[in-house]
Design a protein that fits this description.
five-stranded antiparallel beta sheet, globular
């Protein structure tokens, strides 16, 4: 079958190959296929597919070497198991892998230079395999996976520190020199004039050692986060859309905060101005999804190329929607839309085809998905409680691999919308409201409360994300400017005053 991974049990004897070549001219169909021997296994594969996704085969087929004209190619990769994993990924599967499969797949990705396989291995890093991924990627020189696994280990280092002692000393030292992700929140703020600067217009980060929120930076005077889209891409914070005041005049500039330089810059706004929109970073680009303009809900979606500062329209949503819940899992982008009555639909945006594809539908009486959180190959859909009870939330889990829904047991407190602002880091999910910041440990069938810290003392909507604060920035934040601390705990009497 064309493009398949059929296994045969023939030998690779040269006499058989020569006989075929001497008596038969290969047909056009035969030239599109190639037999690849790996150990005792023989695969019949689509030649163009291998050339497209594998640097090793691309170089071989374009080299003019004798091997590229033969009917059968013998690979020297350690095992057929890793090559089988690679073939599954190339054909569009996203398999969850055992420890042995991971080791073999890493060796195969390093030897054959298969970018898709490296990306998939990165996507399936979790607390159970991250140390294995880190060590094996270091051993075989798979740099991208090595860096991703190292950062994952760093983010979970408090939980993994004992297990990490099995690593070589240099790998431990490398992890410890990295900067962990920090939980960052910005509230809903409108622009202000310089003479009446609102010192509550800040982006804040969570100091987990002191269990308190502290100021990272102040918003630019003309930036608005009211009804805006806010997200992080490549460790930079972006703000798009939003309104200036009760007139709903739309902000016509985008704003970007670069944490590495502690500076703000502006960039062009979408071609269609909007508010109550969703902003998300995906595959290196920004996407602004849906929203409103002049009180009209829209279905339009725009893509922003950061490198060229240009916007272009992408595929429209299946229906008009504002404040769309979205999440990214396994390098895939998902949104949930409400479809009356009682139905929440989950769509995936397929960037390569520029289309929205319906993945699944959940029907629950008088209950709709308001937030979606991704962890591994699971999508957690946070819904309002029965009869629109927003003080108590219920949750359902959709597994992308099995395609099955699972109802999470019990209910979760959602005072002031805490669970609608969730962010995942490692095996933890952080939620925040004015009263408390809670870290949950994500387990098989529940979220278990792990740690509770100070709440975020703001009114209105909140946007949460993760940033890696450079070490030099952390040091600067802790210094004093003319005898006055640059920041202090937001809930202390010496810091910002908050209105209940």
């Amino acid at each position: 079958m064309t493009g398949g991974n059929l296994m045969e049990t023939s030998s690779c004897a040269g006499s058989e190959v020569d006989a075929r070549k001497s008596h038969h001219q290969p047909t056009a169909s035969a030239r599109t296929m190639v037999k690849v021997r790996c150990g005792e296994s023989l695969f019949t594969l689509d030649r163009s597919l291998l050339e497209q996704h594998c640097e090793y085969f691309r170089a071989l087929f374009q080299s003019g070497m004798r091997e590229c004209t033969e009917d059968e190619i013998c690979l020297q990769v350690p095992s057929a198991r890793g090559f089988l994993v690679a073939l599954r990924v190339i054909h569009g599967e996203r398999p969850m892998l055992s420890a042995d499969e991971i080791v073999d797949a890493i060796q195969c990705a390093a030897f054959l230079q298969i970018e898709l396989l490296t990306e998939h291995l990165t996507d399936v890093i979790d607390s159970d395999n991250c140390l294995l991924m880190y060590h094996t990627a270091a051993t075989f020189g798979l740099l991208k996976l090595f860096e991703s696994a190292a950062l994952f280990v760093r983010d979970m280092y408090a939980d993994l520190k004992e297990d990490a002692k099995c690593l070589p000393e240099d790998l431990i030292e490398y992890v410890e020199c990295l900067v962990p992700s920090t939980y960052v929140t910005v509230g809903s703020h409108s622009p202000t004039i310089k003479l009446l600067q609102d010192f509550m217009r800040t982006v804040c980060y969570l100091d987990e050692d002191e269990k308190d929120w502290k100021v990272l930076t102040h918003l630019p005077l003309n930036a608005s986060t009211t009804m805006a889209g806010v997200t992080v891409l490549d460790n930079k914070l972006y703000i798009v859309g939003g309104v200036y005041d009760i007139s709903n005049k739309v902000v016509d500039s985008g704003f970007c905060y670069d944490v590495s330089t502690d500076t703000w810059s502006t960039f062009s706004s979408p071609q269609q101005l909007r508010y109550n929109c969703t902003l998300v970073g995906h595959v290196g680009d920004l996407y602004v999804i849906g929203g409103e303009f002049e009180k009209t809900v829209m279905s339009s979606v725009e893509r922003y190329k950061v490198s060229s500062d240009t916007w272009s329209f992408a595929a429209h949503l299946p229906r008009p929607a504002s404040t769309v819940a979205c999440a990214k899992a396994m390098r895939r982008l998902f949104i949930c839309l409400w479809k009356p009555k009682d139905a929440t639909e989950i769509y995936e945006y397929v960037a390569s085809k520029d289309e929205w594809v319906l993945i699944t539908k959940l029907v629950r009486h008088q209950s709709y998905g308001h937030c979606m959180v991704a962890h591994r190959d699971n999508l957690y859909l946070v819904r309002n409680g029965p009869s629109d009870d927003f003080l108590r939330c219920v949750m359902d889990c959709y597994n992308l691999t099995s395609g099955q829904w699972t109802a999470m047991p019990g209910q979760y407190e959602n005072s002031k919308g805490a669970l609608f602002t969730a962010v995942v880091r490692g095996n933890s999910v952080f939620t925040v409201n004015r009263r408390a910041t809670v870290e949950y440990a994500i387990e098989d069938n529940k979220w278990r409360t792990k740690k509770q810290m100070t709440g975020f003392p703001r009114v209105g909507s909140m946007w949460t994300s993760l940033l890696r604060l450079p070490k030099q920035s952390r040091l600067l934040l802790q210094k004093k400017d003319n005898g006055v601390e640059i920041f202090s705990g937001l809930n202390s009497s010496a810091s910002v005053h908050c209105v209940d």
